[in-house]
Structures are given as C-alpha cells and as structure tokens.
Amino acid sequence: MEELAKDILVRASQGDMQAFEEVYKRTSGFVYNVAYRIVNNREDAMEVAQEVFMTVHDKLKEFRFESSFNTWLYRITANRAINYAKKFSRIKTMPFEESFGDAAVPSDAEKTIEQEEQKHLVEKLLGELNEDQRACVVLREIQGLSYEEIAQALNININTVRSRLKRSREKLMSLKKSIYEKL
Amino acid sequence: MRNCEQFRELILTEYIDGQCDAKTAEMVEVHLMDCNDCRHIFSELKSQAILPLRTVVPQAVPTELWMRIKEGIEEKSLKRNPFEEIAGHLKGWMVLPRLVPVLASFLVMFLAGSATLNTLQLQQVNTQEQGEYLASLFTPSGTSSDNESGTPIEQYFL
Q1: Which of A48, A57, A75, A135 is most exposed by smallest CB count within 10 Å?
Q2: Cβ–Cβ gap B52/A118 under 8 Å
Q3: pLDDT-derived band of residue A97, with 50, 70 and 90 as boundaries?
Q4: C-alpha angle A177-A178-A179 in degrees, rounded to nearest 5
C-alpha cells in the first residue's frame, strides 16, 4: 500500500473531513480486505473496518509521524480484526460437502462455479487456521507484506512470524490434500 | 552442510517468500535439483498453500461503509459534551491520578512519623514527671511544703 502524503494526514487530523475521506479512499481496500479475510464474512468485516476508521479519526491528532502511517494502520486493522474474531468466534468452517457440493449447477455458469469454488476453498483454508495464524497468512499471502512489516503490524518478532507461517503452511498443505482426495 | 530438514524449513518460509539472501537462495536451488522429496514438498507448497491465497480476487469495499463511518463520526461528535472536550484538552494534566498512590504513601509515612514523634515526646514527659516524683520522696521533711502549712506535731506536744 502506497504511503499517504503527510499534508493529507495533517489536514485529516485537524478535522478536515475531505482529507479524511481521501485517507479512507486510499486505505479502505486494504482495511476491508484484511478484516474480511480474518473475520470471514461481509457484515463483520464492515463492522471491523468501521471501528478501524473511527479509531484512526479519533487518534490521528496524536500521531507524531515517528513511524509510518501504514504500519500504524496495519496494526490497528490486524488488532481489531483478530480481537473481533476471537471475541465472536464467528468463523464458519463449512462442511466439505456444503462447500464443494455444487456439481449440478448448469454448465453455462462454469466460470462462476470456478470462482465460487475458489472463494469457498480460500474461506475453508483460512477457517482452519487460528486467528493469529490467519492474520499472518492474510498479511503475507493476500496483502504481500514483508516479514518485518507483519512483525510490526502484529507486534511480534520476526521469528514468530516465520514459525506461524511455517505451521500455517504445513496445515494448509495437509488440509488441501484431504480436500482434493475427497473430490 | 545442511540436511533436508533445514532446507525444508527454509523452503516453507524465507525461500518461498523471497526473503533469503542470494547465497542461501542459491544453496536451496542446488538442493532442490538434487533432492526429489524436497522438490515434491516445494511443488505441493506452491500449488496447495500459496497459489490459492495469492490469486485471491480482492473484495470490493461496500459502498455503504463510508456512509456508516461518516454517520458514526457525526454521532460521536454530537454525543461528546463540553466537559469531555475540556477533559480532552486537559489530558496533559491527567498525570495527577497516576500520582495518587505515591501521594497516599507519602501521607501515610508522614502520619506514621508524626504519631511516633508524639509518642516519644509523651514518654519523655512521663519520665520527667516520674523522676520529679521520686526525687520528692527522698527530699528531707524539713524542706517539705507540709511544714509550711501547719504546726509541727513535736511542737504541739511540747
């Protein structure tokens, strides 16, 4: 995600709603998608994203530009989403038959089926990980953050990032193998 | 010389993520050419755990999200009363509550100190009074104040 210009952030911190809307436009894609992949449903992701932007709006005047705004935003987003997921435990891991049992859908919708299957597969894979592993995997695989950025966002050290990714990948490999064996 | 276990650790983390230095990456590549098992794991890792997630299509941000945020901010600013505003400005002064335990302990120490001092002074007065009393017991009777108030008994019988 591209770093925002300091003057936009300063104006937003002084209560300029147009500047704040600019901050929202540039960052909402990241915030919403990270939240969506961690909490795994649209309504909860909206709630998390709303909380994140309300926090940014409230706390931006205290931001001293000593660290990157993106790192700060990654941290708020990941924390809010992980806490939300842990609190409500709404991750629904659909049974295999429910996720992949659409074989009788008409053939002209093959592309849609493929996309839907891909969507269910990703949800299924992420749903098998715990909240902390899921956050690591989402920030790395879907958002493309470096180990260092993930460590800063989750307030953990790089070795923990490495071990969480390793365990998650081992788990995903064994899980996907079992999914394809069932197919 | 690294063994397969150590190479797998790298394959599952830094190597697949492009976070290895050039020398380590080259060592892993040489090992992958030689080792069928590690090559198989690398291939499975890519197809089963990495690609499905890296090729995810980003979700479009719902259009109503901005409206909800805007409404939330407006609602919050309406709810905020003037006292909260003042409290917000005086946040810098809010160190006082944090000092309460320290001030309380100073107060307790002061009270305990003054109580001890009072007890010591009282003990000193008592000791002085007891000394005076004992001294009066050993004082000769001629100098006693009783002689001044009445006729000595020997003189009465004489």
Answers
A1: A75
A2: yes
A3: very low
A4: 90
For the four alpha carbons of B93, B98, B104 and B110, in that order, the dihedral sign comes to negative
Exposure of A58 by Cβ count < 10 A (0-12 exposed, 13-18 middle, 19+ buried)? Answer: exposed
**Which of A37, A50, A165 lies closest to B72 in CB terms?**
A50
Cβ–Cβ under 8 Å, residues A173 and B49: yes
- As given in the structure block, the two tokens for residue A7 are 């003057």
At A93, give phi and psi (nearest 5°): -95, 105
Instruction: Give me the helices (H) in A89-157, please.
Output: 96-100, 110-127, 131-137, 147-154
Q: Which residue, among B59, B85, B94, would best test binding to A if mutated, counting the most A CBs under 10 Å from its CB?
A: B59
Closest by Cβ to A53, choosing from B12, B59, B69:
B69
DSSP letters spanning B45-61? IIIIIIHHHHTPPPPPP
Question: Which are the contacts of B119, defined by CB distance < 8 A and separation ≥ 6?
Answer: none
Backbone φ, ψ for residue A150 (5° rounding)? -65, -45
Amino acid at B5: E
By CB atoms closer than 10 A (0-12, 13-18, 19+), residue B12 is: buried
B66-112: pLDDT as tens digits: 999 999 998 888 876 666 666 666 665 565 667 788 888 889 999 99
Phi (first) and psi of residue A67, to 5 degrees:
-125, 175
Residues of chain B under the 50 pLDDT cut = 142-150
Helix, strand, coil percentages in chain B from 3-state DSSP, rounded to 5: 80, 0, 20
Flag if A125 and B9 touch (Cβ within 8 Å).
no
Q: Which of residues 88-107 of B touch A (CB under 8 A)?
A: none
